[in-house]
Write a structure and sequence with these properties.
CATH class of the largest domain: Alpha Beta
CATH topology of the largest domain: Rossmann fold
CATH architecture of the largest domain: 3-Layer(aba) Sandwich
Helix content: 25-40%
Shape: globular
Radius of gyration: 23 Å
Number of domains: 2
Distance between the termini: 25 Å
CATH superfamily of the largest domain: CoaB-like
Largest sheet: 8 strands, mixed
Amino acid sequence: MSSLTGKKILLGVTGGIAAYKTPELVRLLKKTGADVHVVMTPAATRFVSPLTLGTVSEHPVLESVFPDNRDGSWTVHVHLARSADAMLIAPATANTLAKLATGMADTMLGALYLSLPATTPVFLAPSMDSDMWQHRATQDNLSLLKQRGAQIISPAEGALASGLSGPGRLPEPAELVEVLSGHFSTNRPLEGKQVVISAGPTREAIDPVRFISNHSSGKMGYALAEAARLAGAQVTLVSGPVALNPPDGVHLIRVETALEMKDAMESVFDKADLVLMAAAVADYRVESPSSKKIKRELTNDPVLKLIPNPDILKGLGQKKTNQFLVGFALETDDDVANARQKLISKHLDLVILNNPRVPGAGFNTDTNEVTLITHDDTQVISLAPKSVVARDILAYCTRKMKA
């Protein structure tokens, strides 16, 4: 039985192109056994029809503050709000976020939001173009809503309706359902555990302008941090430079270089129960970065002398006591053999193998397919949203830690 079975979920749909995903979202919520009631802003009805959402939800869709009052009731927003177990607004446009932050109730959605009891959880899934997402006004509104208790489901990064690419995409419906399921789940297998996760790339300076890095987006590490939090863990996320917002309730340590990541990981390692090294750490750094920008016209054949960075994962493996230590391997040739060698040579408990040649897996994707390799077992997690893959990875780690 799902943790959402029998839960009354209010789904607010606002006027963004990502509203086209909401019929599938309703379908998946219904599949878990949730009772879904949809409320739409007037603008949302231009992207997806109330008839469609009413059909899949099996309830009339609320659209107007002043509905056709056939039943004589003008307080439907109050009664519905008081009986709800949670409210999810997806997509939440910049305009709607601004209205919620200022307490406007000029739509049925706004009236419902203001009528919710203070104890009812609210989840906001922003979706908009990157410039709107990154604007100070939007971020200020989000900060205010978080202070009031709303839980923000960070947007995904990728191709946007404007033709640009960046943060602002609505997460896939399965990921949104996963967040709600995690909130209501009473199964918290990592309750009381300290989990440390590294994520993203590192940057090694060439000069004040240029650096050596890689394509890591940090999405897998951030998904693991969110999944660990939902599983009840106290989570520390050591993150390289990424364009992602950290999950609520996670202790974030920001780093840039491999040496900074080494120091951060070592500072929290001793108290950890589970450590997942998902970061893509640079193998080399420039021995002597220039203090000034290197001018092309003054340097015909520039030569960079690189020196090895410390092997953070191997160092943690050498000092581990009772920690369950997980490494990631990205391989293109002899992948399983190379991953197994990494498992042994770095004293790991588990290696998670990525193959970037698998369509939809690897860097800068919202999905992943991985192979879990231990000393006595191999298991494949098929292509799925990274939030789902993260949940399955942690479930596997939990079983192995108890074995």
